[in-house]
Write a structure and sequence with these properties.
This protein is an alpha/beta fold. It has 7 helices and 9 strands. It comes from Bradyrhizobium zhanjiangense.
Length: 247
């Protein structure tokens, strides 16, 4: 029987990237904990993976609330098992002209995409450090590298999350905690992006050119690849984009 590798906790795990990562790590033998604001939205995935013989749990958590994040990690460690992998995947991709960007919108984008990432990463480090191993993932975006028109709020938050990830990697790497920041410099092949493209350009999903969007399964495989790396060749930052993407 394959040795139990432990728990993969995925925070901000929606129906696209989060679900794909859940499938990949469940396939790899991990007990998967999917965490989002409303856990009932992941019931279909829970049923799917349970039927496949995988171990999966769903939790409701607001990653912006310190007490909720701390309770989540405490509950998982106590009731399910040792956390070996942590993914932070939450974000607020808002596009507003600068003069229409309110204080509330700017703060909300930072709070969800950066502050929440700090809270999740810190709690992951707290449970991993005593054991001397673990992997912490952060999902980045094009906005992690450059600020685009209309993205003052989102870009500042993603820039900030990238800085948090870099600081964590430099501090935790020598202690055998692998911190990875994955930049998805592309549209993600998901229902949300399909709807956005239809609303903006009238493009139906069936008319989207093949391989012009990055598949969620490809993103999950990139995370799996990074997690499997040996200590002498760790990747901290990896960027993904389709072959035809302009960059």
């Amino acid at each position: 029987m394959m040795e139990d590798p432990g728990v993969a906790i995925l925070v901000g795990a929606g129906d696209a990237i989060g679900a794909a990562v859940a499938r990949r790590f469940a396939k790899g033998g991990y007990t998967v904990c999917i965490c989002r604001r409303d856990a009932t939205k992941s019931q279909g995935l829970v049923d799917e993976l349970t039927a496949a013989g995988c171990r999966i749990h769903a939790f409701s958590v607001d990653a912006r609330q310190e007490a909720e994040v701390q309770k989540l990690f405490s509950d998982v460690e106590r009731d399910i098992g040792p956390i070996e992998v942590c993914l932070f995947n939450a974000g607020s991709n808002v596009n507003k002209p600068l003069v229409d960007t309110t204080e509330k919108l700017f703060f909300k984008a930072w709070e969800l995409a950066c502050y929440a990432g700090f809270l999740v990463g810190r709690e992951a480090a707290r449970v991993m450090l005593p054991r001397g191993h673990g992997t912490i993932f952060f999902t980045g975006a094009t906005a992690s590298l450059r600020g685009g028109q209309g993205f003052a709020a989102f870009s500042s938050a993603k820039f900030g999350l990238r800085a948090v990830a870099q600081a964590m990697a430099r501090e935790l790497g020598p202690k055998n905690i692998h911190v990875v920041h994955l930049i998805i410099d592309a549209g993600v092949d998901s229902e949300a992006i399909h709807q956005r493209m239809k609303a903006a350009k009238g493009i139906e999903a069936s008319a989207i050119p093949p391989d012009s969007l990055t598949k969620t399964s490809s993103i999950a495989e990139a995370y799996w690849f990074a997690h499997q790396q040996s200590r002498d060749g760790w990747t901290h930052e990896l960027d993904l984009r389709p072959s035809g993407e302009k960059w």
